Amino acid sequence: MKFHLPAPNRKPGLVDYLGLTGLVGLLIARYIPVARIIPFWGCMLRETTGWPCLGCGLTRVADRVSHFNIVGAWDANPLGTVAALLFAFLTVVAVLHMVFAMPIPQLELTPREWRWVRIGLTVLVAVNYAYVIVKTRFPELLL
Fold this sequence. Notes:
Elements: E1 2-4, H1 14-31, H2 34-37, H3 44-49, H4 58-66, H5 70-76, H6 78-100, E2 106-108, H7 111-137
Antiparallel strand pairs: 1-2
């Protein structure tokens, strides 16, 4: 793993674009009730089978995080909450970078480290999906 801090700059990069994406997404979630105004919005898998999909709860997560209801967002989808909070954090970092030329630390991982990152993310997604399934289909198990 290599870590370095570049010279202060205002050159937009991946963190800035992710921060902008997070800002737009959270502003939409905050001020536009997407799930209410779009008639076909919802999980087709859950509506037809009763089983949640991998992304079930993400609209509620965005809405609740944008209203600072972190506990409610965590209840809807824990990994989605972490992602939404990460987007919010990247929004702050992007503003600091573009306004004050704050350098963004850069991290380079070896192929072996990337492999472990992919394995870890796969396990996190599987555990999160298991939680969402238990939460929606078998809520009595979470007492």
